[in-house]
Amino acid sequence: MKLFSSVNDVTDINALVKEALALKQNPFEHQQLGKNKTLALVFLNPSLRTRMSTQKAALNLGMNVMVLNIDKEGWALELRDGVIMDGTTVEHIREAAGVMGQYADIIGVRSFPGLRNREEDYSEMIFNKFVEFCKVPVVSLESATRHPLQSLADLVTIEELKKTARPKVVLTWAPHIKPLPQAVPNSFSEWMCKADVDFTIVQPKGYELCADFTQGAKISYDQDEALAGADFIYVKNWSAYEPYGNILGKNEEWMLTNEKLKATNDARVMHCLPVRRNLELSDEILDGPNAIVVHEAGNRVWAAQAVLKQMLEAL
Ligand code: SN0
């Protein structure tokens, strides 16, 4: 694998999930594969799980790791071409990414959307410039429109914990006070649409995701109806796709509670984290027996390790 930016970069998702679960059983089997190879993790935005799990995955494979919080510790980056750089930006992404490619065998990049210009965000301008100019394999650590390492870990978690052959998985919108990216739900949806699950997305009217990511999903606006019989509930807030990046209403009644779990098939509750307690998800769920959010975050290591392994094998 030379690029991991979406589910479309994976030839066989079932094989990748199997690989991740095998690595979980035997984390240090491929310690020689990454020997003397360097992974650079570049963050334009904050991170806890992605940073630590990807770093751990690389160490398990024997790699060396460098982390750069370029938003705080790097020179201010210019992204536009052909401009006179007489303002606040100091270094162009052409040189910055090119230089990083001299130091690393694989680069991971995190770049959130600005949520102001939909065309720019959905063209993945920043992520694609890194890929173009660094000239080494790149793994997405969450880009403007997708978070594939998270989605792979989510699928690994579902495969690991499912009690029926084809579980019912429901992605439900949850309240928030800030406009959040669509990356996590877009990505979760495109992975679920390719997995062997019965997949529903439920949201208040107006929060429909970009249709490119939801082909094959059932779409609902009735949370109670959608949750009936669910085996897994994936909780996430996202801002509107149209009008882009907007919050349309408080919709506080959309927060998941124990009462709403009653109609499910004792559903496991998932969230990519970070989660704002009692806004997005209630204490009673997070501290109760159905929440698997920490276990899910643990699986981020095996997802990242499976991807890095396939990238190292293709170097
Ligand atoms: C990010 C998101 O894409 O929703 C990262 C998730 C892995 N989440 C946030 O930015 C949360 C910010 C907040 O203030 O709650």
From TrEMBL:
Identification of the protein by name: N-succinylornithine carbamoyltransferase
Species of provenance: Mucilaginibacter pineti
Reactions accelerated catalytically: N(2)-succinyl-L-ornithine + carbamoyl phosphate = N(2)-succinyl-L-citrulline + phosphate + H(+)
Highest taxon listed in the record's lineage: Bacteria
Gene: argF'
The Aspartate/ornithine carbamoyltransferase Asp/Orn-binding domain, residue ranges: 184-310
SUPFAM superfamilies cross-referenced by the UniProt entry: Aspartate/ornithine carbamoyltransferase
EC number: 2.1.3.11
One BP annotation, GO: citrulline biosynthetic process
Keyword Signal: no
